[in-house]
Design a protein that fits this description.
505 residues, alpha/beta, 13 strands
């Protein structure tokens, strides 16, 4: 079947959009001489696509009713049983709804994508099933993952199970909530500015943002390929480490990866922290929006590590305070170029593409008014940076990312881990209908000062619950390690977890 050829008017519009001037005869000349090019497109159109085979049977499932989904944490329920044996045998898993599961609807929190059904399993989905895990369904995610709060998803806000009416954190909001209610054993999160660690911190679970590229992103809807991360969320450190053993390692389909193999992360458990050198980062505390109780509990966590045998010292990394500024043009201009104008993938990407996602997501242009306020603001700022400054701030920030990484690496050369609050605050109230739109923006982005810099630098970083506030809301400490040194994070996190009950601190 032949593809549609451009009409004379379509080519005229292209010519004008490129700032060129041609009369009808010249346009006709180019139109005639383009036909051979499109003959080759016809050949490609007739060839089968090269996408991974779907191996495990499944049914489309169903959208759960509100009475069965009180926190709105599920987007879709569909049970898919994996292999009969493996590391995840007997464990149930929630898949964040930005991850493709063939035959199961995927909305990624956005009405403009509703109705899309992927034809491919993400690599991490296949690995979960190969390891014997059972997928229980898709967890609610924020609108195209553009919020650290849990109030922007078109399926509706996700409530924090520990305090209804409060944020579960985003954008992996449903994944964290489902862990707290013990509806699943494990959950997948995604993290471009903190979206694994933020909901883990607000809900009081464990969330690991692995080293950039360690876990393949193939089959996960991209935002900006230099900061895209996906990884494990769990109720225990042991489960988190075991889950990462299954998820990590190259798949040959993701150009973000450098072929670093998975390690036996569970082997680090039980080693204790004696001899570990932990650097408490001064600039991670005392932000304008820091809650004194959060800083106090996290400093107490540092003291607890010291009591367990670690060497704990305070260090200063001044550029950390500018980390979120370096992240901002990358996420805003990058997402507008790649995710929105590029229909998810853009070009110049040597990896697995989902052409069906490209086709489905491109339709946002016909429903642009339905995009979330947080995404619209991001798009406007990103497009302005591209149009007015030619993307130079994006480029400069990619250069500065090396300076930021070196600042952390210089400290990590003499220490094993960095320590700071995951977030400066505890979970906030969900914005109510009629609240000022400024509150919608504030609740989406106010908490990212410590998390976003490590998306830029790619260091592994884990949220670990370390106590409750006077309002019974979780507080979280964040440990960050050297690239590919997840084992040391798990070593310290496990010792901390096993030494006390964090809910009683």
């Amino acid at each position: 079947m032949a593809i549609n050829r451009p009409t004379h008017q379509q080519l005229a519009d292209i010519v004008a959009s490129l700032g060129m001037n041609m009369d009808d005869a010249e346009i006709g000349f180019y139109l005639e001489n383009m036909q051979g090019v499109f003959d080759r497109y016809d050949i490609i159109d007739q060839m089968p696509d090269d996408i991974p085979q779907v191996r495990y049977p499944r049914t489309p499932g169903y959208r759960p009713q509100p009475k069965d989904n009180p926190n709105n944490a599920w987007y879709w329920k569909s049970e898919i049983k994996g292999a009969e044996s493996g590391k995840l045998a007997g464990k149930t898993v929630a898949i964040k709804d930005n991850v493709m599961v063939a035959g199961v609807p995927m909305m990624n929190g956005a009405a403009t994508l509703e109705g899309f059904v992927p034809d491919v399993d993400a690599t991490i989905v296949t690995r979960i099933l190969d390891a014997g895990g059972t997928i229980s369904g898709k967890s609610t995610s924020e609108h195209f993952c553009l919020s650290g709060g849990s109030h922007t998803s078109d399926p509706g806000p996700v409530h924090n199970p520990r305090k209804h009416g409060y944020s579960a954190g985003g954008s992996s909001s449903g994944s964290a909530a489902l862990l707290v209610t013990e509806e699943v054993d494990l959950a997948i999160g995604g993290d471009q500015g903190g979206s694994i660690r933020i909901p883990a911190a607000y809900c009081g679970v464990y969330g690991m943002k692995p080293t950039f590229g360690l876990v393949p992103y193939s089959g996960v809807m991209p935002i900006e390929m230099t900061i895209d991360h996906t990884g494990p969320m769990s109720r225990s450190v042991e489960d988190n480490a075991l889950f990462l053993e299954v998820l990590a390692g190259p798949d040959g389909l993701d150009p973000r990866q450098d072929n670093s193999p998975a390690q036996e992360y569970t082997a680090a458990l039980g080693r204790g922290v004696k001899g570990l050198r932990i650097a408490v980062v001064k600039e991670g505390f005392g932000h304008e929006n820091s809650e004194p109780e959060v800083d106090e509990k996290v400093r107490a966590a540092a003291k607890h590590f010291e009591s367990l045998g670690a060497t704990v010292t305070e260090v200063s990394i001044p550029i950390h305070t500018h980390g979120i500024a370096i992240w901002t043009p990358i996420i805003l201009e990058g997402l507008q170029w790649q995710m929105m104008q590029g229909n998810g993938y853009g070009m110049n990407y040597k990896g697995l593409y989902s052409t069906t996602l490209i086709d489905a997501h491109a339709n946002w242009r016909y429903r642009a008014d339905d995009l979330s306020d947080t995404l619209k603001l991001s798009m406007f700022a990103g497009q302005y940076g591209i149009d007015a400054y030619r993307g130079r701030f994006y480029a400069k920030c990619q250069n500065l990312s090396r300076v930021l990484r070196k600042a952390y690496d210089d400290v990590l050369a003499g220490h094993d881990l960095l320590l700071m609050p995951t977030l400066p605050m505890t979970a906030t109230k969900l914005p109510a209908a009629g609240d000022p739109r400024e509150d919608v923006f504030a609740r989406a982005w106010e908490m990212m000062g410590n998390t976003a810099p490590f998306n830029v630098t790619g260091h592994p970083s884990m949220a670990i619950p370390c106590g409750l506030s006077k309002d019974a809301l979780p507080i979280s400490v964040m440990l960050t390690g050297k690239h590919l040194d997840e084992s040391v994070i798990y070593q310290a996190a496990h010792a901390f977890e096993q030494s006390h009950d964090w809910t009683k601190i």
